[in-house]
Amino acid sequence: MNKLIPNELLKNIPELYETEEQNDPIAYVKLFLDGWTWYITEIISMDKNICFGYVESPFCSGELGYFSLEEIKSIKGTLGIGVERDLSFKPTKLSVIKKAL
Known about the structure:
This protein is an alpha+beta fold. The protein is built from three helices and seven strands, in the order αβββββαββα. A hairpin with a 6-residue loop joins strand 3 and strand 4 (50-57).
């Protein structure tokens, strides 16, 4: 269904708000492009479009927020390259990700 994130990964991502009580949620997917990185912790299962997670960009040193996979897929970076998924990324607690940045 989603070329950016395969269905086998999508089915493992918790439903939106499912982990809101957790102090240290897990990021299941890492997407990146030209200094931007999105770590997905939750997704709306009905449409597989709206996500919640941690975002790093040239404009902020990291923040939690909502983002649309459809919008992310439409972004083109340097040389017209689109957003990519880090194929080597394994589910990781946000505290570990923040410490590594």
